[in-house]
Specification:
Layout (H helix, E strand, L loop, with lengths): L2 E3 L9 H7 L8 E3 L7 H5 L6 H9 L9 H13 L9 E5 L2 E5 L9 H19 L3 E6 L3 H10 L5 E8 L5 H8 L6 E7 L2 H13 L1 H7 L1 E3 L5 H17 L7 E6 L4 H11 L4 E8 L4 H8 L1 E3 L19 H8 L4 H14 L1 E3 L2 H10 E5 L2 H15 L5 H11 L8 E5 L7 H8 L20 E4 L2 H11 L5
Parallel strand pairs: 4-14, 5-6, 5-8, 6-7, 7-15, 9-10, 9-14, 10-13
Antiparallel strand pairs: 1-2, 3-4, 11-12
Bound molecules: pyridoxal-5'-phosphate and ligand LJ64HWYM.
Cofactor: pyridoxal 5'-phosphate
Family: Belongs to the threonine synthase family.
GO biological process, one term: threonine biosynthetic process
């Protein structure tokens, strides 16, 4: 299986090359040339299997035979041994036909751990096989950074540089990035917002001389392996709820569109998913796009769900590629228009295809607080603000015929201020993070200027120049 770029101008790559490349050289995102599929019978055969067994079966076709099966299984087992719940992604019933899939039992309490722990092991393996090192850069609005630092800290073949928006992540998120005691970790607070950080990362990938000199690799969801690992929990959950003989709907708190795109891929692979519902906060660019057919950037607002305070939703490009019938020239035109004018229009045919698979909704700050408060009052279950957006939006789309699963993307203790002000409850960090807020911090502050950031990274990476 080869991986092709959404912009159609980069050479197709095998799995290991796409893994290390992150962003394609034409600025596009990699996708498999065709989707591997599973029949209903094959999906039924996964019933009763562990998360790790299902992960192995569902993901192996994507590895293109480039990772030995036993080694891949060992990586999966290692990745999920770091989780504190045996089911990895357990389900909690919150209503007669409503569930939250808890994705926050990994070491940094966010769904990012699910993919990042596997990604780090895959990269380590490929770099060791090739006798190479890599410089990893990542942009974060709060959660990707902590998960990446946890997964890569102390790894000898990689130096990791995480860019986060200065003063715009929660104190817990910041500490998860700034207190790692490892010399290969560099947390950088950027004077700007998340979109500035993400633009810097993409600009570094597009600077070929720099990219090649420091052997740049990415851990954001621009990296196909991130999306790939996130496909698994759609399968485990659907199977637990009666799939493939029953359709399930998923509501996904969305920012960069990676998590929900993984659900789309699961559907393409044969998993009977009814609807995929995009849930946004007041930065509702995706909900507006589905309604109007125009992707139109606005000023980003700071909300109580900072990880979703995003205007440039990276993986929407992957969906456009699909909706345009994999016509890369149309993706290039849309992305050029976005760069030039901050917007693009989606033609009727493509929009129809998107609307067939997806619904979308937004939750205001008031609705988020009310959802946290009411859910706690009703059931004693404490939601984090991101998951609360999912629960709020899902309520408008629930129907008796298909169970509705909201992706629980973070633990409430990552956002204690918002949770306490909504519910009166002060969520506590688990014991292994109990001293997090007293650990010594180490980070640098940089302006959002490409040359500046490249010089900083170039001087600190251990890649041979
Ligand atoms: C807690 C949380 N929820 C939701 C999201 C949105 O996920 P995605 O960017 O994959 O759409 C993020 C960030 O990615 C997050 O950290
Ligand atoms: N919400 C994310 C933003 C980056 O998303 P990614 O999935 O592309 O890594 C975060 O928490 O950092």
């Amino acid at each position: 299986m080869k991986y092709i770029s959404t912009r159609g101008e980069a050479a197709p790559l095998g799995f290991c090359d796409a893994l290390l490349a992150g962003l394609a050289r034409d600025g596009g995102l990699y996708l498999p040339k065709e989707w591997p599929t599973f029949s209903k019978k094959e999906i039924r055969a996964l019933r009763g299997k562990s998360y790790q067994e299902i992960a192995f079966t569902v993901l192996q076709p994507f590895t293109n035979g480039e990772i030995p099966a036993a080694k891949f299984r060992e990586m999966i087992d290692g990745a999920y041994a770091t989780f504190r719940h045996p089911a990895i992604a357990p389900l909690v019933q919150t209503g007669p036909n409503a569930f939250v899939m808890e994705l926050f039992h990994g070491s940094t309490l966010a769904f990012k751990d699910v993919a990042m722990q596997l990604l780090a092991r895959l990269m380590d393996h490929v770099l060791a096989e090739r006798g190479e090192r890599a410089t990893i850069v990542g942009a974060t609005s709060g959660d990707t950074g902590g998960a990446a630092i946890d997964a890569f800290a102390g790894r000898d073949r990689t130096d990791i540089f995480i860019l986060f928006p200065h003063g715009k992540v929660s104190p817990v998120q910041q500490r998860q990035m700034t207190t790692a005691n490892a010399s290969n970790v560099h947390a950088i607070a950027v004077n700007g917002n998340f979109d500035d950080c993400q633009n810097l990362v993409k600009a570094m990938f597009n600077d070929t001389a720099f990219r090649d000199r420091v052997k740049l690799s990415g851990v954001n969801s621009i990296n196909w392996a991130r999306i790939m690992a996130q496909i698994v929990y759609y399968f485990t959950t659907a199977i637990a709820l009666g799939g493939p003989d029953r359709k399930i709907s998923f509501t996904v708190p969305t920012g960069n569109f990676g998590d929900i795109f993984a659900g789309y891929v699961a559907k393409r692979m044969g998993l009977p998913i009814d609807k995929l519902i995009i849930a946004t906060n007041e930065n509702d660019i995706l909900a507006r796009t589905l309604k109007t057919g125009r992707y139109e950037m606005r000023e980003v607002k700071a909300t109580t769900s900072p990880s979703m305070d995003i205007q440039i939703s990276s993986n929407f490009e992957r969906l456009l590629f699909e909706a345009f019938g994999r016509e890369a020239s149309e993706v290039r035109a849309a992305m050029a228009s976005l760069k030039q004018s901050g917007s693009f229009a989606i033609e009727e045919g493509a929009l129809k295809k998107i609307r067939k698979e997806f619904r979308a909704g937004r939750a205001s700050e008031k609705q988020v607080a009310a959802t946290i408060r009411d859910t706690f009052k009703k059931s004693g279950y404490l939601l984090d603000p991101h998951t609360a957006i999912g629960v709020s939006v899902a309520a408008k789309h629930e129907k008796p015929s298909a169970p509705m699963v909201v992706l629980g993307t973070a633990h409430p203790a990552k956002f204690p201020d918002a949770v306490k002000s909504a519910s009166g409850i002060d969520p506590t960090l688990p014991t292994w993070l109990a001293d997090l807020m007293t650990r010594a911090e180490r980070f640098d502050i940089l302006d959002a200027e490409l040359k500046n950031v490249e010089t900083f990274i170039g001087e600190r990476t251990r890649v041979q120049k």
